[in-house]
């Protein structure tokens, strides 16, 4: 797990204070960066080991160590011994805590949604799920803001994977970041044969956002099968108007 710890330390290189929830969420992203499709072997026990290396007992000299505990608004945070958190540090940490708490709380429901969508496929892995039948899919779960930061990593994995690669996002209240993702990456994702789908953790439904599976039999399993096509058409109409 040393490579995951090192990747996470790099991601947190400018941070002074964090929560355990943020460490858990970002450790999954670090795992994907460090392990690629090998993330399928990353377990809940591995996740726990990585997180504890940052707040209890470092297992690598390259592990950032948030040794000091502080409780804010009933939430436990951890900060560096060498720096006192400033107001901006605390505000960022609390914002990341809220985002992480929501995502990690929804993660099992997102995975269950994917399992239902790929019913009849064999399953392997957890945080990165491999589904295999006549076709093969690698599926990773994340937030729309994290997808934006990690887009190039997902594109690289999609291009090197010997199957279809999909990212499943949780639904969000504000559509702004989805619009930004579509504007910046829709064409790149399509060229890389990468899909971006959106799951509602409340009802278990999955909608296509960017890209469809090659296995057309799966189309009927989307809650709104034509959504990605409608989004693409609306976007092209908007671009044409601007031109």
Give a summary of the structure in a few sentences.
It is built from seven helices and nine strands; from the N terminus they run αβααββαβββαβαββα. It is α+β, with helices and mostly antiparallel strands and 243 residues long. The chain has two domains: 2-106, af_2093 domain like fold (Orthogonal Bundle), CATH 1.10.3400.10; 109-242, 3-Layer(aba) Sandwich (Rossmann fold), CATH 3.40.50.
Q: How would you sum up this structure, described in words?
A:
- Helix content is 49%, strand content 19%.
- The protein is of the alpha+beta class.
- The strands form 2 sheets. It has a 6-stranded mixed beta sheet. It has a 3-stranded antiparallel beta sheet with strand order 1-3-2.
- It starts with a helix and ends with a helix.
What's the structural blueprint in terms of helices and strands?
Layout (H helix, E strand, L loop, with lengths): L1 H10 L5 E3 H16 L8 H12 L12 E5 L2 E5 L7 H31 L4 E3 L3 E5 L3 E7 L1 H17 L3 E7 L5 H16 L2 E6 L6 E5 L16 H16 L1
Parallel strand pairs: 6-7, 7-8
Antiparallel strand pairs: 1-3, 2-3, 4-5, 5-6, 8-9
| CATH fold category name of the largest domain | Rossmann fold
| Mean of pLDDT | 91
Number of strands: 9
Provide the gyration radius in Å: 19 Å
Which class best fits the helix and strand makeup?
alpha+beta
CATH class of the largest domain: Alpha Beta
Q: How would you describe the shape?
A: globular
Distance between the first and last residues' Cα: 50 Å
Which terms summarize this structure?
single chain; 243 residues; alpha+beta; af_2093 domain like fold; Rossmann fold; 2 domains; six-stranded mixed beta sheet; three-stranded antiparallel beta sheet; 7 helices; 9 strands; globular; disordered C terminus
């Amino acid at each position: 797990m040393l490579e995951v710890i090192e990747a996470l330390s790099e991601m947190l290189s400018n941070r002074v204070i964090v929560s355990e929830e943020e460490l858990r969420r970002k450790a999954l992203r670090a795992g994907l960066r460090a392990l690629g499709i090998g993330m399928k072997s990353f377990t809940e026990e591995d996740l726990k080991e990585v997180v504890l290396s940052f707040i209890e007992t470092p297992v690598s000299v390259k592990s950032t160590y948030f040794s000091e505990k502080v409780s804010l608004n009933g939430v436990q945070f951890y900060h560096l011994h060498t720096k006192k958190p400033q107001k901006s540090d605390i505000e960022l940490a609390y914002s990341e805590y809220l985002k992480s708490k929501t995502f990690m709380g929804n993660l099992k429901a997102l995975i269950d949604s994917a399992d239902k969508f790929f019913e009849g496929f064999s399953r392997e892995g957890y945080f990165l799920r491999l589904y295999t039948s006549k076709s093969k899919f690698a599926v990773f779960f994340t937030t729309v803001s994290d997808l934006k930061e990690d887009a190039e990593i997902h594109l690289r994995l999609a291009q090197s994977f010997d199957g279809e690669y999909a990212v499943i996002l949780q639904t969000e209240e504000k559509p702004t970041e989805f619009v930004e993702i579509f504007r910046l990456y829709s064409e790149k994702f399509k060229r890389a044969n990468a899909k971006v789908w959106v799951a509602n953790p409340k009802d278990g439904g999955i909608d296509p956002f960017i890209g469809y599976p090659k296995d057309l039999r799966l189309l009927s399993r989307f809650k709104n099968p034509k959504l990605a096509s409608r989004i693409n058409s609306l976007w092209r109409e908007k671009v044409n108007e601007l031109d």
